[in-house]
Amino acid sequence: MKRKKAPPKTERRAFLNMIGKTVVSAGAMLGAGSLLDKKEAASAQSFPTADYDWTKHRWAFGVDATRCIGCLRCAEACKAENGTNPDAHHFRTWVERYVYLEGEERALVDSQADPQNIAAAGAEGVYRFDNRYKDEKVDKAFFVPKICNHCTHPACVQVCPTGATYKTKDGVVLIDEKYCIGCEYCVQACPYGARFFNTETQTSEKCTWCYHRITKGLQPACVEVCPVGARIFGDRNDPASPISEFIRNNRVSVLKPETGNAPNCFYIGIDKEVQ
Amino acid sequence: MEHVLNISPYIGYVFPNETVFPWSVMIAVYPYMTGLVAGAFSVSSFYHVFGMQTYKPLARFALLTALSFMIFVPLPLLLHLGHPERAFNAMITPHWTSAFAAFGYFAAFYVCLLVLECFFVFREDNVARAKNATGLGKLFYGAVTLWSDDVSQKARIYDHKWLFVLAVIGVPAAHGLHGYVGFVFGSLKSREWWGSDLMPVIFLFSAVVSGFALLIVLHVVTSLWRKVPVNIPCVRGLAGSLWGFLMFGVLLEGVEYANVIYKAREGIELILVFVSGPLFVPYFVLQFGIGAFLPIGILAFLIFGKVGGRTLVVGAVVSALLVLMSVFMMRWNVVIGGQMISKTLKGLLSYTPPLLGRESLLAAIFVMLAPFGLLWVLTRLFPPWDDADKQAMPRAADNEKMPLLAE
Ligand code: SF4
Ligand code: SF4
């Protein structure tokens, strides 16, 4: 007798699903079962993968501002990875430059989105800091990478009228772009300017800590490309992860603690002027 | 549809994402309209709830005004949304921690309340019209009375009971709706210019003020149009109320401003630059100077100088127009002004609405004129004036005082 050919993948999955369903949801309604199928099919191509358990992780981000050299590879990698509008008005992550000139009380601040920097770079999609202070007497200067803080009490989630913005169990704040109505209430509410409006999808957008990567065991794109290790990422549930060590070994601070947002992006090496 | 970015110029340092204003001129128009609704409704309830006879000639017209504006209130919001077709998501799955989650329900409830109130207010007239009309008109007026033509004394007392109850519910509903809008702004901690506990009350007072002002203007304009004399006691009453509420409103805003300046929290240097620079004309000159103090002066002169006749009417209309401008400037200075102060507290942005497009100046003007169009249609269908068609169909209620809560 000829051996029966193995069923094609989808059929096999359907078959396995069927078994799973009978075991798991004996007594559950039929409609719920078909919903499960659809969800699983979608997750096979996208994130998180089927075996990812979001109750097992607690992601956090660290920034060692003393290391940042303002090369902006992070900003570039982020735009490429996430297909963000390359112009100077939509950033999931950006870098700020703080410069104290001699005798000055307040810092001069700019970011790669500054028109002078764009002029020096030659185009909006190219990111670099110009050399504007070369003839000045600089007392102190440093760079500060910025990103969505994936706050513990995110103001953006609080105000979203539809629930399109939500906090995942592993501590990441995400936007369901198929559900967002594009009211920009969240853009308004974020004290950190981390959100912006995507004119193509007509919904709000922001950093996801590269959720599609971290749920597969990869690092966020900006962390991956940073040549000096100024960006640190990991799972706080794992005491040996880089982020756990970073937080343990340093006196970390967060941005605008007075808002009560309780950020999960921890900084070292920032200064009173950094908001 | 290609979306053109409206990039805001700035000084100082602002977050890169802040260079596109999230909330445009439409979001300034929206509280302006809810305010007019709340204010117009107040005027109608002065008669319907508190029985103030001075406002009787305007009570029904004020109700139609409130309805006309309320129907268009969602329009500026829908024009703002990136996905207006998903607007119902907020009602299907309201996310209750959001200060905006209940808006859809609230607005829908309030429209129903207004429609119901209009039903009772105009029922008797509509029954008469249904009787006199033929063809399509008969069908229409029959439908709006739900084919119930009972205008007996008993039925009318019943109508009035309902009317009273609806108006009693309507007063807190209208003001709640508008105070709620104030809360949407006042509850945002991300903006120094908004995060204030006084915001809902300030919005409320400016709403009442704008409603009075609108009705003064509309009453005079419609009287001229209809070639009937302006009702002087009514205008005088409105002017008096406008004066009182306006003073209180200005006081509240002054307290709010003093608070921000005196508390002098982080960013105060920037706020001082802001108020003395880009905000000077829209805030101090237009909103306060010309828009509030001047009308307070004119109105005080009209009321205490016992001025009557033409001078009273002209003075009241001028004051009312100034107040309408002032309240719009208040909405603008809150909504747009608040966004001009960067979240970095190190920079100031500026905003000019584009001329054309979904969230443009022209669209905003259209949104603000649309309710007047609807009001015109409604007054044709349901003439709210007591002197209208009186010969054709005398209403029994005209000559007797209706007990509000008769058994
Ligand atoms: S930083 Fe802003 S966008 Fe990110 S979670 Fe916090 S409030 Fe939301
Ligand atoms: S823009 Fe989208 S994600 Fe943001 S508050 Fe509105 S519905 Fe929620």
Features:
A: 275 residues; alpha+beta; three-stranded mixed beta sheet; three-stranded antiparallel beta sheet; 28% helix; 18% strand; B: 407 residues; mainly alpha; two-stranded antiparallel ribbon; 2 strands; disordered C terminus; binds iron/sulfur cluster
Question: Please, could you describe this protein's structure?
Answer:
Chain A is an alpha+beta fold and 275 residues long. Chain A has a domain at 1-30. Chain A contains 9 helices and 10 strands. Chain A has helices at residues 9-24, 30-45, 73-82, 115-121, 155-159, 185-189, 211-214, 221-225, 242-249; strands at 59-64, 93-101, 108-111, 138-147, 165-167, 173-175, 196-198, 203-205, 231-235, 265-268. The radius of gyration of chain A is 22 Å and the shape is globular. Chain A starts with 8 loop residues before the first helix and ends in a 7-residue tail after the last strand. Mean pLDDT of chain A is 86; it is low at 1-45. Chain B is an all-alpha fold. Chain B has one domain (24-347, 357-406). In chain B, 67% of the residues lie in helices and 2% in strands. Chain B has 13 helices and 2 strands. In chain B, strands 1-2 form a two-stranded antiparallel ribbon. In chain B, helix 1 (25-48) packs across helix 12, helix 5 packs antiparallel against helix 7 (153-186) and helix 7 packs across helix 8 (199-226). The longest helix of chain B is centred in the middle third of the chain and has 34 residues, at 153-186. Residues 389-407 of chain B have low confidence and may be disordered. Bound molecules: iron/sulfur cluster (2 copies).
What's the topology here?
The complex is a heterodimer of chains A (275) and B (407).
Chain A: H1 9-24, H2 30-45, E1 59-64, H3 73-82, E2 93-101, E3 108-111, H4 115-121, E4 138-147, H5 155-159, E5 165-167, E6 173-175, H6 185-189, E7 196-198, E8 203-205, H7 211-214, H8 221-225, E9 231-235, H9 242-249, E10 265-268
Parallel strand pairs in A: 1-10
Antiparallel strand pairs in A: 1-9, 2-3, 2-4, 5-6, 7-8
Chain B: E1 10-13, H1 25-48, H2 56-72, H3 74-80, H4 89-92, H5 103-132, H6 135-144, H7 153-186, H8 199-226, H9 232-263, H10 268-276, H11 280-304, H12 309-340, E2 346-349, H13 361-381
Antiparallel strand pairs in B: 1-2
Helix pairs in contact in B: 1-2, 1-3, 1-7, 1-8, 1-12, 1-13, 2-5, 2-13, 5-6, 5-7, 7-8, 8-9, 8-12, 9-11, 9-12, 11-12
Residues 148-151, 154-156, 173, 190, 192, 194-195, 206, 261 of chain A line the site of one iron/sulfur cluster.
